[in-house]
Amino acid sequence: MSIRSFHPPVRTLMGPGPSDVHPRILEAMARPTIGHLDPRFIDMMDEMKALLHYAFQTQNELTLPVSAPGSAGMETCFANLVEPGDTVIVCQNGVFGGRMKENVERCGGKVVLVEDEWGMPVDPNKVAEALKAHPETKIVAFVHAETSTGACSDVETLARLAHEHGCLVIVDAVTSLGGSPLKVDEWNVDAIYSGSQKCLSCTPGLSPVSFNQRAVETIQKRTSKVQSWFLDLSLVMNYWGGGTKRAYHHTAPINALYGLHEALVLLQEEGLENAWRRHQNMHAALKAGLEAMGLHFIVPAAARLPQLNAIAIPEGADDIQVRSTLLKRYGLEIGAGLGALAGRIWRIGLMGYSASPKNVLLCLSALEAVLTESKASINPGVAVDAAQTVLAERGY
Q: What is the per-residue pLDDT across 259-269, written as a single tens digit (0 to 9) for each?
């Protein structure tokens, strides 16, 4: 048997992640590898922290990329802040709230679940009721941008509620960082995690996290060991601390960090508010085309994420067949529904480098062609024109 080099096909990634990777990021990752304690690499680490401060809109000293995907960023937050016996309110309005629940349980915590319908944001009134019913609560955890549904919850309001009851907050920002307004310091977020592969346009495998002083003090006062050695921040922070003296913890994924550094430089060059605006503009164009076609969103407009568009599968369309044809014929990937929404929705991502007029128009034209061919119940021949009208109005 002779196995040759792997050469992946060229795809347009418009699912729930990963997103298309910017060519500058791929180029950055191909640069020469140096040691993870090399003085020049340490300089880059300091720059990375400054760039993450900008992306998160925070000055938290404990801000760093975990050397693993967003799921490890999630576990970093829970493993360090939850001790056995702690009560944690977990808000679930989709798949990823459920993963928070699992993390709390594995840390030995007691979960108080606040549930909302999938496709709806977290209801602050339900959280307030749970806080009153459970005054012993230590942490409130929720997803800012629920990737499984495209619903956006109100971080500022939920964080304020938690703090009024003396609780910390843990926020999942995997799909929101770089794509939607996110202001960690202004909104008083205690611990937050994200991923490199979505609105930052980088490859999967890194998880930016940030902890404020309240969270750091909670970690320092722990009475039990963090159950994960690798994710124990009391150890990791000695490697990602300031200055030139770093304590060895693990061999950092050097070239992957080159890529995240370049992604954050690109975000800085574009400007954070401009990036938020671009995602919103591309969503408006996609929305115009989808609705002209006769498709509809499952999330109310006020809570709808621009970068993750969850649409109901129209009558007459076969979920798997449509997605398979889009991939084979057009090299276009869109996402399936998860959990309770499997087989009922498609998830169309407009994240980072993928959030472009070219991708919006490709998606609409390809989807319209496949749905027309399969005799689904849509309005043919109108989607692209509707999207182009919006793009022109917004200067594209």
A: 999 999 999 99
Q: What is the tens place of the pLDDT at every residue in 105-156?
A: 999 999 999 999 999 999 999 999 999 999 999 999 999 999 999 999 999 9
DSSP annotation of 372 reads: H
CA-to-CA distance for 59 and 49, rounded, in angstroms?
10
Q: Are 152 and 144 in contact (CB under 8 A)?
A: yes
**Helices H, strands E: what count in the chain?**
13, 14
Which residue do the tokens 């003090």 mark?
217
Tokens of 202: 């980088």
pLDDT at 242 over 60: no
Homologous superfamily of domain range 272-393? Aspartate Aminotransferase, domain 1 (3.90.1150.10)
Q: CATH number for the 23-269 domain, one of 3.10.350.10, 3.10.310.40, 3.20.20.60, 3.40.640.10?
A: 3.40.640.10
Instruction: Indicate the domain borders of the chain.
Output: 23-269, 272-393
* Mean confidence (pLDDT) of the chain: 96
Q: Which of 185, 102, 179, 107 is nearest to 144 (CA)?
A: 179
Strand locations in 36-77 (E): 62-66
**Phi and psi (nearest 5°) for 51?**
-65, -40
- CA–CA distance, 286 with 384 (Å, rounded to integer): 9
Least confident span in 151-155, 221-225, 233-237: 233-237
Q: Which pTM was predicted?
A: 0.96
- The CA distance from 21 to 41, in Å, is 23
- Average pLDDT of 65-86? 97
Contacts of residue 153, Cβ cutoff 8 Å, sequence gap at least 6: 91, 93, 121, 122, 142, 143, 144, 145, 146, 303
Instruction: Please name the amino acid found at residue 72.
Output: A
Output the six-digit token pair for 143. 């997803």
CB 116 within 8 Å of CB 96: no
